[in-house]
């Protein structure tokens, strides 16, 4: 309240000095109305001391003029203290001059840029918020009034999507004012109409939290040589009190507001200006505007899935007792955007419902851009090819059968670029998944699968950028009106300065990422410019299906999203910057013992079975043991005791020998690294290892994960026992190895 009053005082002082400077040269004209006096100084309308603040035209005009004054003082004055947005470097390639607020109520961002469009066209584009603001669900114009000075007042109701599954969506009840200033500048400004202003009211809407837009808008000045100079101000109070504490940084970040709203407006203007000046046809014969429309459909479909509004036909399915994955079903025909009503090859599509499985989780110490890039480039690490094939077939004509577990595999992933936006902030591509394996004859499956994919936020040098990977299966014909059922990932960084601890159990999916009493700590090159140590990731997958298969689809979707969550956690952990103070990068995936505990088991078992120490004496503490084990010159690697043993841990030399990473380690089976003679020797020695506890293997040749031959002088294998003296895994040590 003190802050608000201080700003109000500053604003009054600013207005007072302005009027004092202009009073001597201005013509005073007083017009008496039935309510009270309205004072005009020159062409500037001044709010009277007690203006009408009701729903009458005079009352709305009074609010509009006050909004205009406050907006102008923010756009060109010092009503808000502005600081340059971190990471934005002014220059010829810059999108504009971007600033964020410091110490004001709510969150605010300001931008100034030059675009090659006339002011009227700029205003037309910016007023159509849903076309460029991806978070905007809808804008409804409920009333329009013309003012005596040639302006227009509109009463609007606007809804914004929630960015995650863990918070409610926001809505706004707004007054919109369009007018022309004395110097010819066009102004579009707006503010929330709340009860304190005694204006027209809008009742609360279910599932939405009513937020506030403080005086904001667009100041558009014509340039002599054509084009416009535009000033944008976005100032909001997003009611952060209504979300879990860990998420409040999302609603208190002016940087995020600038990225997702203010800069999005400038990019749209620059993109349309470029289309006008340099008309072109991009990938697959599409014009940029057509591709942007497809991108908008992808984004909107993903947002609808994340939010699951009941007025779109979504209803929640009862949980199986574990609340990590939320399931919703939609049997509304409109949801499929015409897919269930369209004909193809003479058949009517049988899919008449959509299932959405979604989850959110907290991630630690992994830059969103790095993680998203990995998910994009290594789809096989998390995706199930059988389910991809099912999703592709489900939007086609004809009945579809449920996918089997890993029914087929993709021989390759080909990414075909389509288009990118200004500054390469966002790009669209077609992903071709090739060489589907053999499927049962009763499954109608395509040979190759095509996904339309939207990707943004992959530049790790950008500060506070939201990273998104959204995709939907498409037909090879790729028609503009093809049905799209988007799925994907969204990763939003959380402000590192905020305390992100929360008792909310929904976020405990990431609890396995906590290492030690203080959790992971970023280190090395990552800690400098990523700025955020935590981020929230939202996953949403949609499946078209026949309504009588709902029970089976629900089970499949729940299991699939849980497997994706586990894969993402494994990838995120491996991509975290490793630092031997916390051993962040050395820990095996969730469900296995801590890396330092495993290191102790390895050394104790070696001593028990071979009677000698594996490592030279080190200082007390398991972390020192792990550090020494990690840097051991011989290649050490552990494999599971499953029917098909896979590697679960390796030290640095082991990863080097296998030519792999911690992420891909579990994809390498034990038998894959041995040639035929080596496999025969290994199988003959395995019983001895399990009974006697160890075995010594003669030197020979093995293969790296890339298929390169590796020679070793000798090898030792021993059984690793846990604290209950049960066999946990087998450890191999390859001595004096080298690539042939």
Automatic annotation (TrEMBL):
Keywords assigned by UniProt, alphabetized: Differentiation, DNA-binding, Homeobox, Nucleus, Transcription, Transcription regulation
UniProt entry tagged with the keyword Transcription regulation: yes
GO molecular function: DNA binding; DNA-binding transcription factor activity; lipid binding
Keyword rRNA processing: no
Ranges of residues in domain START: 53-281
PANTHER family for this protein: HOMEOBOX-LEUCINE ZIPPER PROTEIN ATHB-14 (PTHR45950), HOMEOBOX-LEUCINE ZIPPER PROTEIN ATHB-8 (PTHR45950:SF6)
The protein's name in its UniProt record: Putative homeobox-leucine zipper protein ATHB-15
Origin species: Davidia involucrata
Lineage, opening ranks: Eukaryota, Viridiplantae, Streptophyta, Embryophyta, Tracheophyta
């Amino acid at each position: 309240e003190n802050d608000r009053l201080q700003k109000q005082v500053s604003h009054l002082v600013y207005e007072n000095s302005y009027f004092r400077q202009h009073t001597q040269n201005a013509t005073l004209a007083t017009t008496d109305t039935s309510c009270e006096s309205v004072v005009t100084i020159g062409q500037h309308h001044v709010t009277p001391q007690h203006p009408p603040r009701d729903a009458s035209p005079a009352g709305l005009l009074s609010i509009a003029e006050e909004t205009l004054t406050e907006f102008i003082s923010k756009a060109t004055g010092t009503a808000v203290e502005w600081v340059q947005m971190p990471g934005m470097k002014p220059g010829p390639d810059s999108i504009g001059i971007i600033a964020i607020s410091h110490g004001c109520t709510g969150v605010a961002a300001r931008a100034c840029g030059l675009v090659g469009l006339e002011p009227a066209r700029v205003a037309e584009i910016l007023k159509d918020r849903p076309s460029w603001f991806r978070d905007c669900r809808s804008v409804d114009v409920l009333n329009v009034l013309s003012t005596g000075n040639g302006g227009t007042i509109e009463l609007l109701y606007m809804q914004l999507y929630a960015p995650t599954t863990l918070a409610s969506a926001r809505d706004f009840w707004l007054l919109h004012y369009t007018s022309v200033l004395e110097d010819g500048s066009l102004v579009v400004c707006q503010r929330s109409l709340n009860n304190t202003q005694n204006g027209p009211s809008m009742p609360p809407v279910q599932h939405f939290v009513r937020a506030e837009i403080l005086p904001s808008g667009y100041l558009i000045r014509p340039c002599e040589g054509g084009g416009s100079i535009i000033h944008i101000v976005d100032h909001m109070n997003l009611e952060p009190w209504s979300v879990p504490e860990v998420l409040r940084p999302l609603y208190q970040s002016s940087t995020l507001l600038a990225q997702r709203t203010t800069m999005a407006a400038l990019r749209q203007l620059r993109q349309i200006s470029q289309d006008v000046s340099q008309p072109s046809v991009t990938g697959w014969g599409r014009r940029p505007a057509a591709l942007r429309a497809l991108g908008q459909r992808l984004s909107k479909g993903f947002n609808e899935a994340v939010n699951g509004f009941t007025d779109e036909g979504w209803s929640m399915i009862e949980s199986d007792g574990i609340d990590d994955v939320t399931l919703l079903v939609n049997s509304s025909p409109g949801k499929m955007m015409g897919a269930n009503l369209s004909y193809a090859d003479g058949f009517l599509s049988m899919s008449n419902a959509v299932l959405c499985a979604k989850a959110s989780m907290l991630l630690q110490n992994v830059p969103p851009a790095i993680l998203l890039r990995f998910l994009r480039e290594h789809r096989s690490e998390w995706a199930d090819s059988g389910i991809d094939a099912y999703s592709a077939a489900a939007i086609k004509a004809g009945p579809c059968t449920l996918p089997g577990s890993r029914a087929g595999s993709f021989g390759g992933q080909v990414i075909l670029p389509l288009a990118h936006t200004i500054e390469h902030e966002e790009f669209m591509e077609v992903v071709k998944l090739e060489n589907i394996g053999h499927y049962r004859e009763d499954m109608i499956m395509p040979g190759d699968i095509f996904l339309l994919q939207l990707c943004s936020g992959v530049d790790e040098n950008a500060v506070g950028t939201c990273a998104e990977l959204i995709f939907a299966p498409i037909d090879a014909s790729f028609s503009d009106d093809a049905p799209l059922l988007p799925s994907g990932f969204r990763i939003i960084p959380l402000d590192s300065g905020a305390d992100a601890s929360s008792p909310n159990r929904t976020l405990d999916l990431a609890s396995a990422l906590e290492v030690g009493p203080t959790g992971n700590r970023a280190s090395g090159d990552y800690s400098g410019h990523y700025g955020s140590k935590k981020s929230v990731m939202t996953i949403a997958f949609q499946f078209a299906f026949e309504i009588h298969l709902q029970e089976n689809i629900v089970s499949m979707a729940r299991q699939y999203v849980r497997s994706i969550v586990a894969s993402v956690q494994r990838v995120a952990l491996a991509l975290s910057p490793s630092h031997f103070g916390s051993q962040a990068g050395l820990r095996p995936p969730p469900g296995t013992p801590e890396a330092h505990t495993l290191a102790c088991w390895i050394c104790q078992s070696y001593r028990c079975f071979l009677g000698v120490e594996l490592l030279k004496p080190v200082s007390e503490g398991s972390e020192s043991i792990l550090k020494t084990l990690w840097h051991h010159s011989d290649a050490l690697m552990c494999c599971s005791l499953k029917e098909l043993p896979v590697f679960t841990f390796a030290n640095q030399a082991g990863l080097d020998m296998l030519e792999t990473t911690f992420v891909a380690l579990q994809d390498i089976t034990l038998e894959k690294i041995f040639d035929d003679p080596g496999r025969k020797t290994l199988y003959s020695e395995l019983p001895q290892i399990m009974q006697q506890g160890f075995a010594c293997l003669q030197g020979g040749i093995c293969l790296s994960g890339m298929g390169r031959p590796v020679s070793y002088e000798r090898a030792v294998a021993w059984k690793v026992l846990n604290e209950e003296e049960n066999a946990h895994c087998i450890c191999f040590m390859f001595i004096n190895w080298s690539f042939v």
